[in-house]
Amino acid sequence: MKIKHVKTWKLNELPEDTKQKAIEKLYDINIEFGDWWDQIYEDAADVGIKITSFNIDRGSCCEGVIYDFVETAQKIIKNHGELCETYLTANNYLEDRAKLVEKYSDGIETDIVTEDNEYDFDLECDDLDEEFKKSILEDYRIILSKNYEYLTSKEAIIETIEANDYDFDVNGNIF
């Protein structure tokens, strides 16, 4: 049996060029294992959105299902901050929907669509719902993209290295 002694360094102890190489080698440390998007999917599910797929590369998109548009918008208003894009999207949807209900009301009870106007209301409301779905899924695509950008940033990589107290060899490889 041989015992080998190897000198290791913390990231901040490495020479600057070796430190940069170590960080570059670990560009995917925060996204390689596990589903880095799980928390965002859970957030969407909590407000009634099921994200079915997304792409943050060239074919940038986010697809999903909303089962109850009004309930989803109300949950977003309740659970997301006023400065969040999802909040603004949901608030605009609810305001536009209220105007639509008023338009198809009898003018007295402005929060109820009259039976005679239900068909026209449903047609316009379907368009409004689809536009809300498109906008809110775009908001989530942006959230996913920003999260990915952060997780692959130099700052996040260094945080992960330091949090896990990694040691490096002379070439900047994790030891």
Explain this structure.
There is one protein chain. This protein is mainly α. The protein has one domain (29-163). It has 6 helices and 2 strands, in the order ααββαααα. The protein has helices at residues 16-25, 38-46, 69-79, 85-103, 118-151, 154-163, and strands at 49-55, 61-66. A two-stranded antiparallel ribbon has the order 1-2. Strand 1 and strand 2 (61-66) form a beta hairpin. Helix 3 (69-79) packs across helix 4 and helix 4 (85-103) packs antiparallel against helix 5 (118-151). The chain starts with 15 loop residues before the first helix and ends in a 12-residue tail after the last helix. The model has no long low-confidence stretch (mean pLDDT 95).
Defining key terms:
two-stranded antiparallel sheet, mainly alpha, 175 residues, 7% strand, 2 strands
Question: What integer value in Å does the Rg equal?
Answer: 25 Å
Largest sheet, strands/sense/barrel: 2 strands, antiparallel
Structural class computed from helices and strand pairing: mainly alpha
What number is the mean pLDDT? Answer: 95
Spatial strand order of the main sheet: 1-2
Low-confidence stretches: none
Count of spatially separate domains: 1
Measured as a percent range, the helix fraction is: 40-55%
User: Total number of β-strand segments?
Assistant: 2
Distance between the termini: 21 Å
Total helices: the number is 6
Beta-strand percentage? 5-15%
Order of helices and strands: HHEEHHHH
The shape is rod-shaped
